[in-house]
Design goal:
binds flavin-adenine dinucleotide, FAD/NAD(P)-binding domain, about 500 residues, five-stranded parallel sheet, 2 domains, alpha/beta
Length: about 500
Amino acid sequence: MATREHFRVAVIGTGFGGLGAGVRLRREGVTDFVILERADSVGGTWRDNSYPGCACDVPSHLYSFSFAPNPDWPRAFSGQPHIRAYLERVTDIFGLRPHIRFNSEVEEARWDEEARHWRLRTARGELTADVVVSATGPLSDPRIPDIKGLETFPGKVFHSSRWDHDYDLEGKRVAMVGTGASAIQIVPAIQPRVDRLTVVQRTPPWVMPRMDRGINAAEKWLHAKVPASHKARRGLLWLIREFQVGAFVRRPQLMKATEQIARAHIRRGIKDPALRAKVTPDYTIGCKRILLSNDYYPALAAPNTEVVDAGLTEVRGSTIVTADGTEREVDAIVFGTGFHVTDMPIGDRIHGVGGRTLAEHWKDGMAALRGSTIDGFPNLVMIIGPNTGLGNSSMILMIESSLNYLADYLATLERTGAAALNARPEAVRSWNAELQRRMERTVWNTGGCVSWYLDASGRNTTLWPGTTAEFRRATQRLKPQEYEVLRGRTERTGSSEASAEVAA
Ligand SMILES: Cc1cc2nc3c(=O)[nH]c(=O)nc-3n(C[C@H](O)[C@H](O)[C@H](O)COP(=O)(O)OP(=O)(O)OC[C@H]3O[C@@H](n4cnc5c(N)ncnc54)[C@H](O)[C@@H]3O)c2cc1C
């Protein structure tokens, strides 16, 4: 029988999560690992989203790794090419390339109960690993709604995260479907180039001014020569966002002041009262992600733009039809309709104890312990798992906290000589019961909107209802009592015991 390659750890994905995991593993002295990536380069989100205007909406000095400061960020909110280049540099500086296998989509990961390790089938062969780190990203699989007749459309169709740069939008009649985070960056970037832009809006977003500016040479010099100045800047950006959390989570009524700024922003950008009314949301600000833009409203008010305030229902030949009966002939349809978030495709590919898939396990909603581990899926650690998303701060903070947890997870395996750890169902239940209790008062649940934060049953399984400092504390150390130990049949301890408490 052919022997499969075996690794201590197999990481899936090369976005911030997967690359961060690689750096952390090396720092912990783990070198026996592989990083599997379905694409042919690193970057995740920042490789796939190359649409015009793509940039982060959390300041770059915070939206980057704490262990890899970048004094050269060109802007307060840097664009996609710079973030992608940053991740390429991180890959090289931290020696990750030899560990990465590109074009290696993980088609299946199956827990082998006998051997007590994972069997992975990838597009480039099979391998086994003691521990799997899933960093496949919450926003990596585009979602295009099922629209009647779309397949008959004779023009160009693509999703914002799979931009077709070979297609020239110059002088075209374009429909932008959706008004979320990507769409509000795309609209002002393409409006001056296209003949006519039809923005198909189901629910308007709240949009705040974007405090963007170029980082000047003196600042860059200072950050390069005096690292403490970079740290101080990052610290301040972090602190401001930590203070905002209370309003989102405990006192949504405090969001009213922010709402006034957003209303004034609409008034400044749009003169026409009818258009102002169309783009003014009827839910509390913060319920959906607050978006940042200085040129979105002026682009909507431009003579070649039309906002259709109804969802897309049908495509008839080259005509799009919306729920209010509006019909417009277009040459291209761009979908800014988000991603598979609460139904992530990797869920169908990961099989835990008894062959059960993660998707089956999560049929009533995603749930994990400390956003990281799942009962019945031993030695599977997620980066940006359920309830680790943020409404207002940098996801890199959450990723780094999850990496602390991963490091302690691996240290616990070493210390106890266990083959695997399996989260106790009661630990997962009580962690999530507390999360959902805290969720009740949040603006995401009470603000009167339907958002991608909520799953089909209306439960918020995506966001973290607290500060990033709280999550950091919650993931600093693995709590042994929350796990059962699976001993190896033959290896390490020589024990054939099925399970035991983890020794603290
Ligand atoms: C346009 C856009 C803008 C954003 N802006 C911000 C922002 O300003 N601030 C913020 O905090 N967050 C932002 N986010 C959220 C962003 O997704 C996270 O901040 C972060 O980049 C996620 O990193 P990740 O590594 O978890 O996932 P990703 O970056 O999505 O990486 C996942 C990787 O896994 C790979 N993969 C997936 N499935 C498989 C498989 N089966 N086999 C092998 N490989 C696989 C993918 O190809 C990808 O490379 C933004 C997201 C988008 C889409």
